[in-house]
Design brief:
By secondary structure, this protein is of the alpha+beta class. It is built from ten helices and twelve strands. A hairpin with a 7-residue loop joins strand 4 and strand 5.
Length: 338
């Protein structure tokens, strides 16, 4: 199958040619039509590429296009038979059907979330329409979900507000008692799940701060605001979240190289499931332990990950993080002292 970036454009051009009942397209005409469409791309194709494209369009892996060869003298032109065929109307093949059914099975697992209860009504209709309806069978995929998590009722309204670019008025109660309940105008930008909790990131208009994150379980109320929506110009995936673990980001905290010793019994798990995408192996020692490095901001979530298996990790640098974890571990030990 041709997989280069112009393939879909070539198929569309050939589709239009084969479906035109008012003109006869010989091979040279097809080459010219495709090259006209590719002019803006700065490239051209020849006879062999067009024949390969036609072969793919006729194949089971392609569109199963009914392309008929019609002779006129010593030349042959091509046309759909029936003429009303189109690659845009061709049914899905076995592979696409299987992939779609797998995707629907994954969506089924979201039904248990309160904000996705609409899937209960929608999924059976989709399956019946696509011919996937079958007797009930046991679930074969499970998510690590928290059905009792508070705040899920806000997930769908926030998703819609982001998609529709709607500013919201939010009533919020932090876990910190001194902060109390507050209300403010908020421009939601992205949603993120971490450690079985959902967070929404966006601009707090009242504080004039673009990067506030709110835990959904602490939102008391949300409603549409009369303010015009403001888009925060940042690449959330490749910039904001790239140098942190979880959701906490202190802009005054700099990204650092963090070197960590990992015990031999923990090393295979840390290598197969890296702590962060920046993880690099620096040293493999004779006793089976390893030394790794991370390039990120040493936030609270990083501390939590290291403390969950505290006896299997040791921060070698920076000294500031090493000292911070030392005091947290010391306080934990004191709590166990009789």
């Amino acid at each position: 199958m041709p997989t280069n970036k112009n393939a879909l454009l070539r198929y569309q051009v050939l589709n239009n040619c084969f479906g035109n009942p008012y003109r006869k397209y010989f091979i040279q005409d097809l080459i010219a039509a495709v090259n006209d469409a590719l002019a803006d791309e700065g490239c051209k194709v020849g006879r062999s590429q067009i024949y390969n494209d036609i072969k793919y369009m006729e194949s089971e892996l392609g569109y199963r296009a009914p392309i008929k060869r019609l002779r006129e003298g010593h030349k042959v032109y091509m046309r759909y038979d029936p003429i009303d065929f189109s690659i845009h109307k061709t049914p899905l093949g076995p592979k696409e059907n299987a992939q779609l059914e797998d995707a629907l099975n994954i969506l089924e697992r979201l039904e248990s979330f309160q904000s996705f209860d609409w899937l209960t009504e929608l999924l059976p209709k989709i399956k019946q329409k696509l011919g996937f309806a079958r007797p009930e069978q046991a679930s074969i995929i499970f998510f690590d979900e928290n059905k009792d998590y508070q705040g899920l009722e806000h997930l769908r309204p926030l998703f819609t507000a982001i998609k529709e670019e709607q500013c919201l008025r939010i009533a919020y109660q932090s876990f910190r008692e001194e902060s109390g309940k507050e209300e403010f105008n908020f421009h939601p930008q992205v949603l993120k799940q971490y450690n079985k909790r959902w967070f929404v990131f966006g601009r707090d208009e009242d504080r004039d701060f673009d990067y506030r994150n709110l835990a959904l379980d602490r939102i008391q109320k949300l409603e549409d605001s009369l303010l015009a929506y403001k888009k925060v110009e940042i690449d959330w995936e490749n910039d904001f979240f790239k140098d942190i673990i979880g959701v906490s980001k202190d802009w005054e905290q700099q990204k650092e190289e963090i070197k960590i010793w990992v015990a031999a019994e923990q090393a295979p798990y840390t290598e197969s499931k890296p702590i962060h995408s920046s993880q690099k192996l620096l040293e493999r020692r004779e006793d089976g332990s390893i030394v790794i490095s991370l390039e990120l901001r040493p936030n609270y979530e990083l501390q939590q990950q290291l403390l969950m298996a505290a006896e299997k990790y040791k921060v070698l640098s920076p000294a500031s993080l090493q000292t911070l974890l030392y005091h947290r571990l010391k306080k934990a030990v004191e709590r166990y002292e009789p």
